[in-house]
Design a protein that fits this description.
Elements: H1 4-14, E1 18-20, H2 30-46, E2 76-78, H3 88-97, H4 104-119, H5 123-126, H6 132-147, H7 157-162, H8 167-184, H9 190-195, H10 217-226, H11 250-261, H12 267-272, H13 289-295, H14 305-309, H15 313-320
Antiparallel strand pairs: 1-2
Helix pairs in contact: 3-4, 3-6, 4-6
């Protein structure tokens, strides 16, 4: 074990590095400062008398997917000052690489604890914003880590396979719960605003009080799934249930999900993505996911796609001995 003083000496004198502690500060330009001052003066005027009781603080806000970091515990060595920020998705990715973390249950728990907890922070405030697509893109990538699916996989498959409700429905449910709690406590001043809400000034604004109070997350997800137009959706009767095979080894689990979604590393798709010069199978036909499963004389599965979805012993044995890394 190397003592602390030796580590500092090696980093400082031999590697020519400097020790920095991560700090987060507000980016304030001169224009930002003038704008803040002007708006504070306007807010002070509006809050005179009893009018402050009708002020509802709600608007769009930018949240980064970064975890809380203690600046007092860690130092980072860089050749020069930089502005790194930690990504909680890296923890999920690291868990996927490790032997203990490859199970889908472990990755799901890690994602909910590190990624979703940050991505949904204060969601009732900003869930109607037009910028939620940026958050959803990061959550979709997290669900791909859980399921082992590829980027071209239809997004509607990811919530079911990861056993996490769609992000927009989770945010909608969170807003519904908050409104119910507020209205249940009649002593809160905000109830006077909710009873007679102020008129909406801008079309782009969609305030919280117009949201539905009674949101049935499971029922809405069922209705959405029934109206989808994606391949093999009939395999799933209820998207709220955990998909079969959730505790399979990582490679088997990933292959299973790519067969379910008909999106994997077959030659036809690899050629379509400019990753393979040939789209044919070694049997001479075009190698699609359906061809591998049903038509290839060397690899076809004797059961049905439903057997693969339900993870029967014959299906799992066929996946384990499949000579193509889908």
């Amino acid at each position: 074990m190397i003592i602390m003083s030796s580590v500092h000496r090696i980093g400082k004198k031999e590697l020519n590095l400097n020790s920095y502690k991560l700090q987060k500060v507000h980016l304030l330009t001169d224009a930002n400062k003038r704008q803040r001052l002007e708006r504070c003066r306007q807010l002070k005027i509006r809050a005179t008398g009893q009018r402050w009781e009708r002020i509802l603080f709600t608007d769009e806000k930018l949240f980064k997917l970064e975890q809380v970091h203690s600046h007092q515990n860690d130092s980072n060595w860089f050749a020069e000052a930089s502005d790194p920020w930690l990504d909680p998705q890296a923890a999920c990715l690291e868990a996927g690489w490790s032997g203990w973390g490859r199970a889908a249950d472990t990755l799901r728990t890690t994602a909910l604890a590190l990624v979703y907890s940050v991505a949904e922070y204060c969601a009732p405030v900003w869930e109607r914003s037009s910028h939620t697509d940026s958050i959803d893109a990061q959550l979709n990538q997290t669900m791909r880590l859980i399921t082992g699916n590829m980027r071209p996989t239809p997004i509607d498959w990811l919530p079911y396979l990861s056993n996490i409700a769609p992000p927009d429905l989770r945010r909608k449910k969170s807003t519904s719960n908050l409104l119910s709690k507020i209205k249940a406590n009649t002593k809160l001043p905000i109830n006077t605003v909710l009873e007679i809400p102020p008129p909406t000034r801008l079309i782009s604004r969609n305030p919280a009080w117009v949201a539905d109070e009674n949101v049935d997350l499971k029922e809405e997800w069922r209705n959405r799934w029934s109206n989808l137009a994606i391949a093999n959706k009939d395999l799933v009767e209820d998207p709220n249930t955990k998909p079969p095979g959730y505790n399979l080894p990582r490679r088997t689990w990933s292959t299973l999900n790519r067969i379910r979604t008909s999106t994997g590393r077959c030659n036809y798709l690899l050629n379509k993505w400019n990753m393979s010069p040939d789209q044919n199978c070694d049997c001479g036909q075009i190698q699609t996911m359906h061809h591998i499963l049903r038509d290839c004389p060397r690899r076809f599965f004797q059961g049905t796609l439903g057997d693969i979805h339900r993870c029967t012993e014959e299906a799992l044995e066929w996946i384990r001995h499949l000579d193509i890394p889908l």
